[in-house]
Structures are given as structure tokens and as C-alpha cells.
Amino acid sequence: MCGKSVYMFLLLLVLKQDFAISIRITELTVPSHAVEGGSVLLQCHYDLEGEMLYSTNWYKDGREFFRYVPSNTVPFHYFPNDGVDVDEKDSSSNVVKLVNLTPESAGLYRCEVSGEGPYFMTVFDEKNVSIHLLPYRRPQVTGLEDNYKIGDILAVNCTSSRSRPQTYLKWLINNEAAPKWYTTGPWYRISRERPDAKETIMQLRFIVQSEHFKEGVLQVKCQSSIAPLYQDEVVHHIVHAEDNIIDPISEDILNEEIKRLMQNRETNANYGMDETDLPVPESQNDQGQGSVFKLSISSMVMVLLIQIIFLNPYLGNYITNI
């Protein structure tokens, strides 16, 4: 009889144990990414399966920072923790609001739910939170002109302000991803204001062709993103400038121009000036650097003749027959 009583007691204990273990967390809402300086809601919903709640506890990296015990005179209690600033007025038994997030706010957050005695069965769930520092301004495009001609070199940089992690940059031409051989980078530069963050730079460089213009307009776009919290873009529309077209030149004017150039060449040769230094204006590709190239008089004549031949076949034939 005694043995049967012990057996029934153990059976009831096991059944009670199984019933208590049925306490479960139905939903843990902890965002995987949050913004530095912002706020976040931590939500822990549970099903007690008929049991009484003893406490709800929150931990960051194993350290408790929030406790809710409904049977206490003061049910809510908060504990100091690095990177954890609890907004008490917007927190409850199921929700904890963290404000003024810092890099130290990143970590592993755990919610524990315990049933009332005598068993105090406890279940928990946990998730990681990463804290991102977002760019403080839109991406900046530098070195871009208002218009380009066919054959011009378009070379521009897109720069994203400091962020953590670094920003992903992407160039688009007419809403299509720029070919890889058009882009260089990305390069990363540590921020002076925030050593824990980096600026991102990517260059777009290509020779402008007629197919780049759609109804006389070339669109270039720089997109910056930090998934899943941030995305921005800057768009520029470039007008197709008129190409250099030489007006038809009469034979007399052409002969006079050639004669003048030849005379200048002979004069320069007499004074030891076979080449003339011609300053080149700073372009959008070499701002602040400047450059100088040497162009001989004979080269100038050749360039002029080539342009005339291609643009005026009649005069080209005339020059060929001279």
C-alpha cells in the first residue's frame, strides 16, 4: 500500500512538472538592427498555460537590467547596465523601451519568464542586436559638369559621410547599373570625428558616347545603403552639349590659313621655338591639379586638316589633290 502511494505521488509530480514546463514564450520581438541615438522596443509575449506568473526578467550579455514581479509592492525594478537606458514610462510587463542607443547597446538580449512556486519553471529566448551609425547627410557627387560632348571623359566621385558599418555605394547610368569597368573603388577613409566610423568613396569614369544620352539627357545616379536601415540616392541629369562642328570653309580662306600657319612655323624655328607651351584649363577630372601639354605647329595643322576632311568631303578632296 505504501509502495502504491509513493507511485501515485511520483506520477502526480511528473504530471505537474510536465504541466509547468508547458509555459512558453510565444513571441520575442527584438530588432536585429537599430540606429545609434535612436530607440527600440523589446517585446516578450508568453503563454503561462494556466500557471501564475512569478517574474519577467531581461538581460543583456548575461547581466540583468529589468525585472517585473507582479506580487511585489513595487513590481518594476531597473538595474544599471552599459548601453542600456530604459524609458520607464513606456515599459511594462511585456515591453521594455530602450532610448539613447550607443555602440555599447549592441549585444545579446534575453527574456526570461518564470512561473510561480513551488517549481518556478523558467523559459527564455534571446536575440542579438547590432547598433548602426547612419550617414548624417546625403551622398555627395563631386567633379560633375553640367554638360558633356561626345568623346569627353566623365570622371566623378560619390562620397558617403561616416557610418558604421561602411556604406555600400552603387553607380547607375540611366537607371541601369554601371558596368564594372566604369567604376573604381570603393575606398574607405576613417572619419576624423568618429574613429569608429568610415567614409566611403567610389568613382565613376567613362568616355561619353552618343548611346549614353536618352533624348539628349544622360542620367547618373549614386545610391548609398546600409541594410536594412538606410538607403538614399542622389541623381544628376547631364545635358548633351553641342559638338564642335566647323563651318564650311572657302578655298581662299583655307589656303590663307595654311599659309599663315606655315609662316608661323618658320618664324618659330628661326627663334628655336619648334613647340609652343599651351596651358590646359582645369577639367572636372583633374580639379586643383592643372596640366600643360606641348602642341607643335605641325600637329595643329594636321588636326585642322583632319577635321576639315571629315566634315567637308569636297575640301578634303581638294586638299588631297594639292
TrEMBL record:
**Name this polypeptide is given:** Ig-like domain-containing protein
> Where exactly are the transmembrane stretches of this chain?
295-315
Q: Give the signal sequence positions.
A: 1-22
Question: Domain of life of the organism in this record?
Answer: Eukaryota
Q: What PANTHER family does this protein's entry cite?
A: BEAT PROTEIN, BEATEN PATH VA, ISOFORM A-RELATED
What are the record keywords, sorted? Membrane, Signal, Transmembrane, Transmembrane helix
InterPro entries tied to this protein: Ig-like_dom (IPR007110), Ig-like_dom_sf (IPR036179), Ig-like_fold (IPR013783), Ig_sub (IPR003599), Ig_V-set (IPR013106)
Tell me if Transit peptide is a UniProt keyword of this record: no
Alphabetized SUPFAM superfamilies for the sequence: Immunoglobulin
Domain Ig-like positions: 23-130
List the taxonomic lineage.
Eukaryota, Metazoa, Ecdysozoa, Arthropoda, Hexapoda
Pfam family of this protein, just one?
V-set
What is the native source organism of this protein?
Leptosia nina
Q: Does the keyword Nucleotide-binding apply?
A: no
